[in-house]
Amino acid sequence: MAAKCIAVLTSGGDAPGMNAAIRAVVRAGISYGMRVMGIQRGYNGLLNGEIVEMNLRTVSDIIHRGGTILYTARSPEFNTPAGVKKAAENCRSLGIDGVVVIGGDGSFRGARDLTQSGIPCIGVPGTIDNDIASSEYTIGFDTAMNTAMEMVDRLRDTMESHDRCSVVEVMGRRCGDIALQTGIAVGATSILVPEIPYDFKRDIVDRMIFTQKTGKKHFIIIVAEGVGGVEKLAQDIEQATGIETRATVLGHVQRGGSPTLRDRVVGSQMGALAAKLLYDGKSNRVVVMRGGQIVDLDITDALNMERVFDRELYETALRISI
Fold first, then answer.
1. Beta-bridge mates of residue 121
2. In the chain, what are the domain boundaries?
3. Which of 20, 42, 99, 159 could form a disulfide with 11 if both were Cys (CB 3.0 to 4.6 A apart)?
4. Of 157, 212, 161, which is closest to residue 189 (Cα–Cα)?
5. What is the pLDDT of residues 146-169, one digit of tens each?
6. Which pLDDT tens digit goes with each residue over 157-206?
7. SS3 per-residue string spanning 75-93
8. Which active-site residues does the annotation give?
9. What is the Cα–Cα distance from 62 to 45, expressed in whole angstroms?
10. What is the CATH number of domain 143-255?
11. pLDDT for the residue numbered 208
12. CATH domain 5-140+259-303 topology
């Protein structure tokens, strides 16, 4: 049965492009004749009744804004059976026939639980880490990479002026995609990711010494957050090479800022399809990018997929970053 009233929420870490997805859910939903509610502060807001009706003008002038106009928050209560039951009851009392959940794997598990309690849900992947196995691309990834690239380019100017080495930590606890692609884009001498163990001498010191002999005098080492230890790594590099070395943690600056064209377009595509799926009476689905196309999969199947790190791209980085 087609939904008459749907809701949209953002959960987990914010990501540039979430607002584009929210906008698309609202406007596509209204175009199908549905009412659309906005749930503020994720599942926590669903439990606490922080819900407002959205209209065409509610989402005007938000596509270019970072963050999420619906806000986001963690919800320990929702992670309990009693919390899920209460959330489902709140949806039924408000006449909400389905929910679009924009977030990461944890958010999708919540969507699956809510579906099993009788409220149809559709997941949309929004996370800067690009760490959702079922989707080739997640909303926010492109913006985060471009932000990191810009920050490292700025660091390069001062590193080059002083013949220094810069060790830069970028986001990515379990996934090295930001580090890998940013590292290639800035010409990093070494790229350290959680998917591949590294050897300090072989993968950092020897590469620096080799490139130093060819005339290079400044160096950039990109480290994924999941590898960590950049302060100690910088000290070890300076001790081993004699090259003055500084550590920089880019941190949450990568989450903010106006989304890139790609994140605005992909967010819009995914949000619009999510609204259509609920209108068509679909449930327990996640909208993903597969083969460059925006499609939908069963949430449980999506959560059971194993993510594959792009080792070929990593090998390319090793060959050209010398």
1. 99
2. 5-140+259-303, 143-255
3. 42
4. 212
5. 999 999 999 999 988 899 999 999
6. 998 889 999 999 999 999 999 999 999 999 999 999 999 999 999 999 99
7. CCHHHCHHHHHHHHHHHHH
8. 129
9. 21
10. 3.40.50.460
11. 96
12. Rossmann fold (3.40.50)
